[in-house]
Design a protein that fits this description.
single chain; globular; mainly alpha
Length: 329
């Protein structure tokens, strides 16, 4: 019965997401591009074209649409102008913040000082100035600065812990737990865009859903992570089948828990939104599994060419496969 329902629900959900993407793209063009224009002109080289791409497209579209609109479904509210601004700004700082840990080798004290806009830690380049300007805008708009600060600190601690991903002695299970924790705290941070009080049940659900989302993101980021020397659950797995089983189990447990914790239509709508990310991740895992089969017994992505690690979700066959996973899972 649920499969039959899914067949009818999926086109409506997909159309809704496509409309949300169009709306967010228009908002980024109107609101964020003017904000970024001076950094295009005054860039000292610390900001790359990929940084701007992440701000305006990868994070700037994906996070407000899939996470932000999903949370709005859960809360049964519309994403208003203030919420959209906050979500977009939070998405914009995501990649910049990650790069402090992944690329710049800043001290934790300095990163936290920049995050807190401390006068003791002045921004020294365009990357840091842009980050601080975006943080300042978030603070101006935020409906609850104390809550925002508390959850920002939790994200910071999770990011500090993620530095272990560069340590060769970190086990696969430890990598999984680091990834899961970081994703959960990040989704709670996005939740601060909405003024409604967060219940204990909602907080636990968001931690679990955020963890699942982060694992899925790392599946798609494998080529980038290898280039940057970051060890993830995808770069370090030796058999893609094992990772796929792990993600399927996590998906099942997360959705079952959330539907029991908050048994509402709003939660179902939220999970339908998140299911789009999970379905695409299954397609990527199938793609990597075929790559593994063509190249030997074990999955060794460090040895594969770029095209063997890029699952283009724009291809019709991949979109069809993702639709299949959404309906039948």
């Amino acid at each position: 019965m649920s499969i039959v329902k899914n067949i009818f629900i999926f086109p409506k959900r997909l159309l809704s997401v496509q409309n949300q993407i169009r709306e967010q793209k228009a908002f980024v063009h109107e609101y964020l591009h003017p904000f970024l224009s001076k950094y295009h002109k005054q860039n000292d080289g610390s900001l790359t074209e990929y940084d701007f791409e992440k701000i305006t497209n990868y994070y700037g579209i994906g996070s407000p649409v899939l996470a932000g609109e999903g949370i709005a479904h859960l809360l049964n509210v519309k994403v208003g102008t203030r919420e959209r601004k906050t979500l977009t700004l939070m998405a914009a700082i995501t990649g910049l913040f990650d790069d402090f840990f992944d690329r710049s080798y800043q001290s934790s004290d300095r990163i936290k000082g920049l995050m807190k806009l401390s006068p003791e830690f002045r921004p020294q380049n365009a990357h840091e100035k842009l980050f601080c300007d975006l943080v300042q805008e978030i603070l101006i708009i935020s409906p609850d600065k104390k809550r925002l600060n508390d959850f920002a600190n939790r994200v910071f601690e999770a990011q500090v812990n993620s530095l272990k991903q560069k340590d060769p002695s970190t086990t696969w299970e430890e990598l999984f737990n680091i990834t899961y924790k970081k994703g959960g705290e990040s989704l709670l941070f996005y939740r601060c865009s909405f003024s409604k009080t967060i219940s204990e049940q909602e907080m636990e659900c968001l931690l679990k859903i955020g963890g699942l989302i982060q694992v899925c993101n790392d599946i798609f980021d494998i080529n980038k992570d290898i280039k940057e020397g970051i060890r993830t659950v995808t770069t370090e797995i030796k058999d893609i089948k094992i990772l796929k089983q792990k993600v399927q189990q996590l998906y099942k447990e997360t959705f079952e828990y959330c539907q029991i914790a908050i048994p509402t239509r709003n939660m179902k709508a939220f999970l339908q939104q998140i299911k789009i990310i999970v379905s695409q991740s299954f397609v990527a895992l199938d793609f990597y599994e075929n790559t593994q089969k063509r190249n030997g017994q074990h999955f060794t992505p460090q040895k594969y060419p770029r095209e063997s690690l890029i699952c283009d979700m724009g291809k019709r066959k991949h979109l069809f496969r993702a639709s299949y996973y959404w309906v039948f899972n």
